[in-house]
Specification:
Layout: H1 10-50, H2 56-79, H3 83-117
Length: 118
């Protein structure tokens, strides 16, 4: 039986949107963990070549932990069958993801400043 999306019950449509948000948080967070680790590796090479240390790689490692927490919470939200728990986990994952994104922008500014000052 096929039916139009407009005929869907509002609760079903909201559940599907929530699942979509969780999937996006999960995949984007996992990707950003990899990005943070890549930049940490590149920074370590630059630091060893310049023979001076910076706080940027430590900040990126913390940033990767925020993304990892968001990723794990989104995964847990996708796997849970309890609707109330799903909403709470999704909300927390969303907040942590947004904080990690802001922290990423701050880190980018810090890295730019730290490299240009040296």
């Amino acid at each position: 039986m096929t039916y139009n999306v407009d005929e869907e019950a509002p609760a079903e449509r909201r559940r599907r949107l929530d699942d979509d948000i969780c999937v996006h948080i999960f995949t984007a967070s996992a990707t950003m963990v990899g990005v943070c680790l890549t930049v940490v590796g590149i920074l370590r090479v630059v630091i060893s070549l310049r023979r001076e240390d910076t706080l940027a790689d430590d900040l990126l490692a913390v940033n990767a932990m925020f993304y990892l927490a968001s990723c794990l919470l989104a995964y847990w939200a996708l796997r849970t069958r309890n609707v109330n728990r799903n909403y709470r986990l999704e909300r927390v994952a969303d907040v942590i993801f947004l904080l990690a994104m802001v922290f990423t922008a701050a880190n980018a500014g810090f890295i730019t400043w730290a490299i240009s000052v040296s």
